[in-house]
Amino acid sequence: MKKSLVGAFIATSATFLGLASPVSFAQTGMPQPPAAQQPASPAPDFNDARDQHTALKWYLQRTFDAVDTNHDGVIDRKEWAAFQEKNLARRRAAFERHFKADDKNGDGTLSRAEVQASEPWLAPHFDQADLNHDGQLSQEEVRAYIRRLRHAAYALDNPPSKP
Predict the structure, then answer these.
(1) Which of 34, 37, 99, 156 is spaced 20 to 30 Å from 89 by Cα?
(2) What CATH fold (topology level) applies to the domain 83-158?
(3) Can you give the residue ranges of the EF-hand domain (predicted)?
(4) pTM of the prediction?
């Protein structure tokens, strides 16, 4: 009996406090955090087209600024070549790092078991990637297979035009 009365009292009090709160805020206004704590502008959540457009603009500007090393607003051949070389070196290093991590026994090649364990996207295509049919994938064979995939995807996206 006591528990039900206490519960009813708490529920009733909460209801009255809930009804009174909007009135007090309406009279005094919402308390505002100090200006230093307010964010300058909300970060986009990238869930709608406007935010995605903003993200694309930021990406393009950052990329342009990275390529335009002398900041003259123009990308010349020298800047473009330097950017491409740096990008290619970064991609090669990442590939080699991943390959080395996948090569659990450290023999410099990937066995079928290593590929199945660490690169499930490649496992079904192991025989196609294994050009010399030795049951192992070298870095060169994996690179060649990835190049063939990219060329095939490019061909699908860019069919030859009719004369």
Answers:
(1) 156
(2) Recoverin; domain 1 (1.10.238)
(3) 60-90, 126-152
(4) 0.57
The sign of the CA dihedral 106, 109, 110, 113 is negative
Residues 51, 41: Cα–Cα separation, whole Å = 13
The helix (H) or strand (E) run that includes residue 137 is strand 136-137
DSSP 108: S
- Domains of the chain: which residue ranges? 83-158
- CA 87/CA 94 separation, integer angstroms: 11
pLDDT at 61 over 80: yes
DSSP codes of every residue in 87-148:
HHHHHHHHHHHHHHHH-TT-SSSEEHHHHHHH-TTTGGGHHHH-TT-SSEE-HHHHHHHHHH
For tokens 């990937």, name the residue: 110
What six digits make up the tokens of 73?
């607003």
